[in-house]
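Forgive a beginner's question, but might I ask you for the amino acids of a protein and the tokens describing how it folds?
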Amino acid sequence: MVMEPISVDKAMEIAKKKGIKPGRVKDTKGVQFTKGRNPRLEIIDWDEFKATLSKRKLAVFESGGWMKIMKAPKGKR
């Protein structure tokens, strides 16, 4: 399957259906999705998630409902 970039709004829809939230790895700038059970991750709000993606030139990619955060395509930075 090919991973395609999606908007944060689309990521929010998928996350809500899957019961996951945006999170940050404690004491780092790393972001990822979480169900909130990992003590090394802190849940952040969607605005902070979006700002972090923009600042770090990252984007959410999706394939078959599976999401991953990777470097944004050059035209989306």
User: Anything to note?
Assistant: The chain has a mean pLDDT of 93. The chain is about 25% helix and 35% strand. The longest strand covers residues 58-63.
